[in-house]
Amino acid sequence: MRIVIQRVAEASVTIEGKIHGKIGCGLLVLLGIESEDIQEDIDWLVGKIARLRIFADLDDKMNLSLSDVEGEVLVISQFTLHASTKKGNRPSYIRSAPPEVAVPLYQAF
Question: pTM, whole model, 2 decimals?
């Protein structure tokens, strides 16, 4: 599993002109699921993200977690995080989980 996390003041996902997800202050998470990933990986990662102290406190130090700031999370499936570009000019996504594996894990996230 690979993720990219970005702190945001607000974020949204728009598909064909329609907003499909929107948050205020919190985290934007790009989630790439591999074929070998299981529910325990999701459980561990969700806990880790919730506890990461990456928000500034009153002294402007990164000392507060998502839970501490009562932030929101917007998760976007991003299978391209597992692209391999070692050979040739076309990325390979062979490590990315197929939809029948990825969709249930994404929904559990």
Answer: 0.85
Q: What are phi and psi of 82, to 5 degrees?
A: -100, 15
| Cβ atoms < 10 Å from Cβ of 100 | 7
- For residue 6, give the CATH number of its domain: 3.50.80.10
Total domains, the chain = 1
**Domain of 32?**
2-108
Q: What is the pLDDT of residues 71-104, one digit of tens each?
A: 999 999 988 888 888 888 888 887 888 788 888 8
Q: Which pairs count as long-range contacts for 46-55, CB under 8 Å and 24+ apart, including other chains?
A: 46/109, 49/3, 49/5, 49/73, 52/5, 54/5, 54/7, 55/7
- How is residue 97 annotated by DSSP? P
Catalytic residues: 78-80
Q: DSSP class of residue 24?
A: S
Give the residue among 22, 25, 34, 24 at the shortest CA–CA distance from 76: 22
Question: Which whole-number Å values give the CA distances from 81 to 70, 78, 95, in the listed order?
Answer: 28, 6, 10
